[in-house]
């Protein structure tokens, strides 16, 4: 049993083999089933007190809504219980280790939540006169200065709403720069290991996408890249550190070659956590890079957002960045440069990407995190993140196939393949086995360059004891997969649900709830 | 360094286990000339919780918070009372610190919530299906235009002059690169919209017509005729709703024939937040679902036959389809969708209708009171909780003068449409349930003082 848990507190194992008796409710003690609001609420129930106002003759243009909408309500106690029960069916970084590669699931400090909720930030309108929002503009400006300094870049566009939106910002800046010099280039080069958002973004902006091959050690093939460069190549999109968890050693040479051929370099900054405070992308010749505040700078992922994706820009691309942005004056006042005030100060902007000023609620959180760490702490963040990932790589490479372990140390994440598992056993089985062990699985089947990829990113906010226990659990699950343990094929056994039928969901999509009779009629 | 659990002895033990002499050994692949020797000079070092909190308190005090003053701003972001339990629930770590639900067995909480959210949005908008959210209303709007282009294989989009000018700007930015042609116009300070222009412009080349409802000046109009004409020519009607509370009082765009309905969900649960994060709402007819952007949650069963939920139809998405995806969106606005959904569940249909009624009643009172200020005219015949006034002079300085009197008195059209002289006297005023009768009186009095 020591393989299960090599250090730290060890849970008592109950007697094995007992069949679990069924319950009347379907609940299992703290594991509580919860119906849909449409099954427990009614359209006559409300959980709020309605304001008392006199009736007036309406001026709704004769468009009063008479038909039932079908929105059930719950009283406040019922609503709180409904959502609390749902919450307990979720895994979360607050509950345990969440080593999802390329997603940087680190601790989300609660100080950030507190400052973001101060009325001066949470309760201000984006179109208030700028004189009444000087503190909010100061937050945006202070964060912008930090991001510029940490990346060694020339400017930053703060408005993009998430990483993929930031990619679009960078690619549009490249497109605008090319247009400004009358150079209609049509191709963006993307490595095979890129996030799916990279080719999707380039294609959206009207570029055609071509893959660049990787070397056997998991890095961009510089010679192949150089051979492809030419007058039709607008630029490259490279993730560095890359999605194999490796630093692109030739990054500066790649940038120089792309610049010499008249193109621009976009860097996907999803993995900035590995190098923050130790390496500045600006020193590597990058022209544009988005920063996922919800990864490197700890703003919560919220079950799929909101994110925030500011984009740092080189001197060459800064003139093309989007509106609006903040400006600090010599007397300490802040102003907002938007359509009205842009004049001749920023005439080449490619335009606006979103209605207002970006993800203010994420800016306060990220700035709070950055100030808490400071320049010294952020460097320690990168070092601990890289140390933790290498500790996992070297602890597991004897148990699992690590295709690039020979390439040298990894950065913030360690990549493994499904090579060596018993016939019929896959990466998915390892993932589901880890769920039973109380972990969120790593990223699976990405990057595409490795068969049955498993990408483990521990982040710097995990202790050695947590890593040791995870390593033990991983060895145990992998051994079961190598030995062909049939119980692993049907894992998870202890989660709120067993494996879900994704094929059925896609074949007969049920995307909204329908009254039972309605659902029958629809078939 | 309170967020870093590794101790110095831990670090030494781990380096030894790895076989590295120092942390620098793990950065050997980074060329020496690209590495910084130490912490970046000129930036402050780490700070305690107390110090950081004090800094933010100081900055927060330099803003005029909406709740502390009579407040009447709208134009795409509305101040509503958010029940306390909403913020409590979204701060539960199981929601706040979860990721996109890629492992459905341990993400049923988020998935069931999204399924409920999708159903609420579809019903509110009068559509068959809705997705699991977009970044905000403005990005949802251009994603809808792109979707209409994919469905109709046409490139001409006709935008109503009542569409929020920022939404138009976003669409214009994107259209430059996608090759879409946008037919746009400026609004006029009048009770009538430009639906005649839209009807005229629809032809066999038209991909879609985009109409905001209620529009940027607060006007409400029946969309049925536009829908009919669009459908006659094989085009789609996209309706844009920036104030979802309105749909507790007025007919849903889907009922009037809209094919795609998008909106800004900030009004429910999310708060003002100086513009973000917000939550984009996106709904459409069932037959278009495979052209939709964004995440979709669907119902299925697990291996024991129990009902459960998963992300589905992902063959539309970037992580599978790469350059052929329907959108590049990955992270959406999950936690804001949760806030929206909780608020909607607390309201229920009864609450939403009551809330809408209160908004409208107060807005009618405010419109009548403000129109009695000498020189001020009400532009709208119809409105929900937002209307436009024509002032006797340029509205921008009036808004600043009102702020000096501690009244946040609406959005001047000059801010939204710079250098358009016909609009510079326009002031858009939103009145929600958070405004009291005293606030309205304070506003009217201050306005009168400034104008006299």
The top level CATH class name of the largest domain in chain A: Alpha Beta
CATH-assigned fold name of the largest domain in chain A: Aspartate Aminotransferase, domain 2
As for the number of domains of chain B, it is 2
CATH superfamily of the largest domain in chain A: Type I PLP-dependent aspartate aminotransferase-like (Major domain)
CATH superfamily of the largest domain in chain B: Type I PLP-dependent aspartate aminotransferase-like (Major domain)
Mean pLDDT of chain B: 96
CATH second-level architecture of the largest domain in chain B: 3-Layer(aba) Sandwich
CATH architecture of the largest domain in chain A: 3-Layer(aba) Sandwich
Number of strands of chain B: 13
Distance between the termini of chain B: 58 Å
Structural class category of chain A: alpha/beta
Structural class of chain B: alpha/beta
Percent of residues in beta strands of chain B: 5-15%
Instruction: Work out the helix count of chain A.
Output: 16
H/E topology pattern of chain B: HHHHHEHEHEHEHEEEEEHHEEHEHEH
Q: How much helix is in the residues of chain A?
A: 25-40%
Can you count the helices of chain B?
Answer: 14
Multimeric state of these chains? heterodimer
Portion in helices of chain B: 25-40%
Strand content of chain A: 5-15%
What does this structure look like?
- The complex is a heterodimer of chains A (523) and B (452).
- Helix content of chain A is 34%, strand content 9%.
- Chain A is α/β, with parallel strands linked by helices.
- The longest helix of chain A is centred in the C-terminal third of the chain and has 37 residues, at 360-396.
- In chain A, the strands form three sheets. In chain A, strands 1-7-6-5-4-2-3 form a seven-stranded mixed sheet, with helices on both faces. A three-stranded antiparallel sheet of chain A has the order 10-12-11.
- Chain B has two domains: 69-81 and 348-451, Aspartate Aminotransferase, domain 1 (Alpha-Beta Complex); 84-343, Type I PLP-dependent aspartate aminotransferase-like (Major domain) (Aspartate Aminotransferase, domain 2), CATH 3.40.640.10.
- In chain B, strands 1-7-6-5-4-2-3 form a seven-stranded mixed sheet, with helices on both faces. A four-stranded antiparallel sheet of chain B has the order 10-11-13-12. A two-stranded antiparallel ribbon of chain B has the order 8-9.
- In chain B, α9 (224-232) links the parallel β4 (206-212) and β5.
- In chain B, α5 packs parallel to α11 (334-371) and α6 crosses α7.
- Chain B is globular.
- Classes of the chains: A alpha/beta (523), B alpha/beta (452).
- At the A-B interface, α2, α3, α4, α5 and α6 of A face α1, α2, α3, α4 and α5 of B.
